[in-house]
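Journal club side-thread
Mid-discussion, someone asked how the predicted structure for our own chain would compare to the paper's figures. Pasting it here so we can look after the session.
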Amino acid sequence: MTVKERFEGVSQWFEATMPDPKTELEYDTPFHLLLAVILSAQCTDKRVNIVTPPLFEAYPTAAHLARATEEEVYEYIKSVTFPNNKTRHLLKAARMIVDEFGGELPNDIDNLMRLPGVGRKTANVMLAVVWGEAAMAVDTHVFRVSNRIGLTNNSKNPHATEKTLVKHFPEEKLAKAHHWLILHGRYVCKARRPDCLNCGLTAFCKHYAKSTRAK
């Protein structure tokens, strides 16, 4: 099977089974999505969605959050992973948005990545979800699933995975593909025990082909 055939097969299956994938993070504004994505680092979306409603109510805009203290913000997010670091990131990001961007989120990857707590993955999430741009955010699920299926070939790091996926997925499908791979990794192609028996991608999956031959 060629690389092109594998990508086409994977895309067609996802289009048929998951035509309109969405982030599982709950948010009401782009600024609040940014907060949620920062909080979601090494933390479950379920936990983040428990924490964010009162946080969003208390701080509806970057200007509101920029005026808060660390102690105040910490109380809202103390049950997520690394709450001390994330508290500082949220406050510093809000203050930079106010001071340097007039209270509005920047909409380009370079300026997004200048915000504290925002790496390439988070910036690409914002570009894809908020602005519908052809961006591929690579988290642990995307990195793992891409390699297992054979969309990538032992990529050394997330950026290498991103470049391969951007090269081979059609531009108009990139934002969807990000969610396809995350959700597939979260519920089917799990880290410790992939559920191959209930996976519709076995015809295109290198891991499945290898495990079948080994039996």
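Post-session note: The two ends are 21 Å apart (CA to CA).
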